[in-house]
Design brief:
Shape: elongated
Number of strands: 13
Oligomer: single chain
Structural class: alpha/beta
Order of helices and strands: HHHEEHEHHEEEHEEEEHEHEEH
Distance between the termini: 44 Å
């Protein structure tokens, strides 16, 4: 039985030329010569019966057939790398760097408890955690994954929902002594509300309620607004400055010890989703895939 893929070296030569932009640059990267790579690509084109490249003195372009072949062979080689890493990971500890971005709320209050067992199981993995309320560009900025809040646009990213986080409207006891306790939604207009400026829109984020079984969005306005770090609204509320809406997992302990009081509980029940997202076609290391599985299945 003959070998079916003896020509893979020629495919690698083709991929290297396209990655580096020229035969000369690819040859330097592979420690060979441009003529050797040119012959390899020529053999590949002869085998396929298709011209893959358009060569001029100034640049190299792709034919339509070449563009399709480049995309498919890149994916195939990525799969081979994944298979190799998975085989290696069965006999060796996971290692390498994994970069993840998370918003401040989830990064401070939910992610640590999820990361702790993963890092204990894989002590050789180097984890880089970026905590920001800005939506990073996964590919351009070199992140393996990110945690995003809210309904996700159709961005082409793979998304795994982590949880639906329940919202609470809260204020400090001393603020309520001064300003009174709101009894209905309209009463909030008379209070010092602490809105957060949404990074994507530059506008105050809506507060969400359930009124008579219907979802209601209410726009808070105030002489004080918080931007960049949404946790600032909680800090302001805890100091008795005003009212804020935030997630139950942030204020649960503060409510239990009396530092904050829940307001209008009859209108509570709304949630917002947190999801883990990553690029579907980007090559992921074994360590990154293990972290995706750990975050997506924390009890497993």
């Amino acid at each position: 039985m003959g070998r079916s893929f003896e020509y893979l070296g020629d495919v690698e030569a083709f991929l290297a030329v396209m990655e580096h932009g020229s035969f000369t640059a690819a040859a330097a990267a592979l420690s060979t010569t441009a003529s050797v790579l040119s012959r390899a690509v020529g053999r590949l084109e002869a085998r396929l019966g298709q011209q893959l490249m358009r060569r001029t003195t100034r640049r190299i372009g792709l034919t339509d057939a070449g563009r399709r072949y480049l995309e498919q062979t890149r994916e195939a080689f990525d799969l081979l790398r994944v298979a190799e890493q998975e085989a290696q990971s069965r006999s060796a500890a996971l290692s390498g760097r994994v970069r993840i971005s998370a918003p401040t709320t989830f990064g401070h209050f939910r992610l640590p408890v999820l990361l702790k067992p993963f890092l204990a199981r894989h002590p050789e993995v180097r984890l880089e955690l970026n905590i920001t309320n800005r939506n990073v560009d996964l590919v351009e900025e070199g992140f393996d994954m990110a945690i995003r809040l809210g309904q996700l646009p159709d961005s082409g990213l793979v998304a795994r929902k982590l949880e639906d986080a329940e919202l609470r409207l809260v204020a400090a006891p001393d603020y309520l002594k001064r300003a009174g306790v709101p009894k209905k939604l309209d009463d909030l207009a008379k209070h010092v509300c602490l809105p957060f400026v949404m990074p994507r829109t530059g506008k105050h984020g809506d507060w969400s309620f359930i009124v008579d079984g219907e979802n209601v969005e209410w726009q808070p306005n105030s002489v004080l607004e918080v931007s960049d770090d949404v946790l600032g609204t909680v800090s302001m509320a805890e100091q008795g400055i005003g009212v804020c809406q935030t997630y139950d997992f942030i204020v649960r302990e503060r409510l239990a010890n009396g530092r904050l009081v829940e307001l209008l509980p009859q209108f509570s029940g709304r949630t917002r989703p947190f999801s883990l997202v990553y690029a579907p076609h980007r090559h992921q290391s074994a360590a990154a895939r293990a972290l995706i599985d750990a975050l997506g299945n924390p009890g497993g």
